[in-house]
Amino acid sequence: MASGNQVAVAASVVEGVDRSPELMRQPMLEGPFDVKELLHIDEALSVAERDGGGLHYSVYVGPLHDPVRGAAEELHDRLADPDRSVLIAVSPEQRQLEIVTGRVAQEKIPDRSAALVVFSMEAAFGAGQLAGGIVTGLRMLAETAQGR
Fold first, then answer.
1. pTM of the predicted structure, to 2 decimals
2. Which of 8, 22, 106, 110 has the fewest CB atoms within 10 Å, measured from its CB?
3. Beta-carbon contacts of residue 77 (< 8 Å; ≥ 6 apart)
4. pLDDT tier at 31 (50, 70, 90 boundaries)?
């Protein structure tokens, strides 16, 4: 998917021929986010890591094989410290969302709290705000963990 940012590549001279502005092109980003959205998600991850009750937070956006919950749990198990980790796994194409918490993380973020986060994220996704939903989810998860 193309980014929403317009970045011009400087015109240059190649073999004595000037390249006109018509040949200037935009860089491409793969995935559903533009640069600004990626920066917001990165900032939310940093804040969650700093303020989120000593837990580690990760986000995966992409396809999840069936069963979706099992696929998300497999991803979570591959994290560096799964017991202290929280994974938000989103598959926009499949319209699936899973939050997976490790053993220690689940003590700070019980299933009931994670379900409320999912509800809020789905509301944002339904309004077309994929990045906003992820940022909201990270904030809510970190606040929940910090309070316990």
1. 0.80
2. 22
3. none
4. confident
